[in-house]
Specification:
37% of the residues lie in helices and 14% in strands. It contains 11 helices and 9 strands. Bound molecules: phosphoric acid mono(formamide)ester (CP).
Amino acid sequence: MDPAAPLTSLKHRHLLGLSTYSAPEIGLILETAREFREVLERPIRQVPTLRGYTVANLFFEPSTRTRLSFELAEKRLSAESVSFTRSGSSLTKGESLRDTARNIEAMKVDLAVIRHTSPGAAHFLTRCIEARVINAGDGAHEHPTQALLDLLTMSEHFPSFEDLRVSIIGDIAHSRVARSNIFGLTTLGASVTLCAPPTLLPVRVEELGVRTTSHLEEALDGCDVAMALRIQRERFGASLLPSLREYAIRFGLRMRHLREHPDMIVMHPGPINRGVEVDHDVADHERAVILDQVTNGVAVRMAVLYLLATGSA
Ligand code: CP
């Protein structure tokens, strides 16, 4: 077998994170997502690819973009799907994650998509059920489909990841989006700079092959992609930041930054705190590709569902 030949199937049975995915596997997902992106532009945006498959969407934590785009991706692929949220379920009566998952699997599902507050929840699920598992965000651990849709969006603006300089700005310490992007981007050869107040930078994060700074101007110097992250007030006490106002002054992206860096695009995984991570004008600027990220989310999730459902790993 030629080691340089493009892959035609994934080597993984699950998508728990990007830390173990190789460049050819990520490339296969992005290439497949580009094909599904075209399906989304057709008058009839549905293909029979996963007819006969059943997907359970297990959302133990609130979500707008990820849950809706997984549900839409399943419909676009003609899969059957059921959705579960914590409120209104028997979890409120004390049922464990393991028992909940095994009951859902007893109803015969092929794939399970899980979002949970606990890091490792998706991995735990693989030990409880036979279905293939997709991590839709587990605590501050990983959010691989978000990073994949970010990579797809970047690839629409820049010819190669090899020369790409990406600055991730914000609450790195609590961000599963940052972690998955660090793994994906460095695997593909991009240069990554993390920019945050020292209290929001994980210790020894440079060991992941990234640069760090607490100065926004330094992070934006020569940068192609400025990815702002949401300040996650629910994940830490007020002690890590003096005030949101001070954060916005030191780390918020403003029109001045777009003028100073005319080739730079702005990304944000959402939900946005307007006026904190990005100014209103920046969020709505043509070089802010935030809604393109959302559209690409459907195509990427179609690709991941398809490749895992039909894979032989
Ligand atoms: N980006 C993201 O994960 O958004 P949701 O929390 O709305 O799913």
